[in-house]
């Protein structure tokens, strides 16, 4: 059987979503999100969505691109995924080689990749010159049967809003996202200062549920937010929870997540997912408090391109 690697086509969206769900059952992904990412990719990203096709069936995929918003030039990323029933045939190696050749041609000097914390995947990465840097944990919460905390009384000057309330002017959310993201642990430093780019790739993301995205406002200022990503059916994910530095230590992140999770359950969502860097102790502790359980771990790897 022959495997070829080619660029994504619009008609591949359903197959790519199905494959991603088979490889990463704790991700919330939709066809609309795939098509949006391909259609709106920033030119500087040199983005390609690669698919591996075996006898007309898509058996592998990878998002490939330059980290154009990093303050360190030459950073790039690729994470190949191959259907669990089609591994061990060289498909992952072919996808990765195609991706690395593209990134090198676009000026990349190093490639970051997420690798599942399992022997076969780790050996695959090590054999191809990737070294581990840091782990992250996927977590799951049973919204249908779990117990959520009650929403506490709001302190004076504190109110709850949603992202939908900022439809006319989302800039306060951009500024909060920029500050919170800059303090997240990670391997790649980010230059988070392009409002138009944020509008295009965060605010207009079809996976962002603005009605379920809770914003905590203190004396009129955005203090905390938790961004909700959904499949518009049963699955909910916390895309990002952040608190501005001046408001940390007040329990506002718990407040935001409590409100968003309770409203998500009321809207019919039955599963909640999130992911945190293993060094993000405060957020991991908050998620344990809600009842999230670690369901998988991945380890970021990096390779210097020749």
In which range does the helix fraction lie? 25-40%
User: Averaging pLDDT over every residue, what do you get?
Assistant: 95
Structural class: alpha+beta
Task: Write the CATH homologous superfamily of the largest domain.
Answer: Gcn5-related N-acetyltransferase (GNAT)
Indicate the CATH class of the largest domain.
Answer: Alpha Beta
Low-confidence stretches: none
> How many individual domains?
2
> Can you tell me the overall shape?
globular
CATH topology of the largest domain: Aminopeptidase
Number of helices: 8
What's the arrangement of strands in the largest beta sheet? Answer: 1-2-3-4-5-12-6-11-10-9-8-7
**What letter string, H or E per element, gives the SSE order?**
EHHEEEHEHEEHHEEEHEHE
Radius of gyration: 20 Å
Count every beta strand, where a strand is a DSSP E run of 2 or more residues: 12
- The end-to-end span amounts to 31 Å
Main sheet characteristics: 12 strands, mixed
Strand content: 25-35%
By CATH, the architecture of the largest domain is named: 3-Layer(aba) Sandwich
């Amino acid at each position: 059987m022959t495997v070829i690697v080619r660029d994504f086509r619009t008609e591949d969206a359903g197959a790519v979503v199905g494959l991603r769900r088979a490889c990463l059952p704790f991700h919330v992904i939709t066809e609309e999100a795939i098509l949006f990412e391909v259609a709106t990719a920033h030119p500087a990203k040199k983005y390609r969505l690669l698919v591996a096709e075996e006898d007309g069936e898509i058996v592998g995929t990878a998002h490939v691109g330059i980290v154009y918003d990093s303050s360190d030039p030459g950073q790039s990323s690729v994470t190949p995924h191959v259907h669990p029933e089609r591994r061990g045939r060289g498909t992952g190696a072919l996808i990765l080689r195609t991706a690395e050749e593209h990134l090198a041609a676009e000026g990349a000097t190093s490639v970051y990749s997420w690798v599942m914390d399992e022997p076969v995947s780790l050996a695959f990465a090590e054999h191809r010159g990737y070294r581990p840097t840091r782990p992250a944990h996927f977590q799951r919460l049973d919204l249908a049967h779990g117990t959520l905390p009650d929403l506490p009384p709001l302190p004076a000057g504190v109110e709850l809003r949603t992202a939908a309330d900022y439809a006319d002017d989302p800039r306060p959310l951009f500024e909060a996202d920029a500050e919170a993201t800059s303090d997240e642990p990670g391997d790649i430093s980010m230059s988070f200062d392009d409002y138009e780019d944020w509008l295009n790739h965060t605010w207009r993301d079809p996976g962002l549920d603005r009605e379920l995205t809770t914003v905590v406002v203190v004396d009129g200022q955005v203090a905390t937010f938790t961004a909700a990503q959904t499949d518009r059916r049963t699955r909910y994910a916390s895309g990002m929870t952040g608190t501005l530095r001046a408001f940390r230590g007040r329990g506002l992140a718990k407040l935001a997540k409590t409100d968003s999770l309770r409203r998500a359950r009321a809207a019919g969502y039955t599963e909640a997912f999130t992911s945190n860097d293993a060094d993000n102790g405060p957020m991991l502790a908050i998620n344990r408090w809600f009842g999230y359980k670690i369901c998988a771990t991945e380890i970021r790897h990096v390779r210097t391109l020749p």
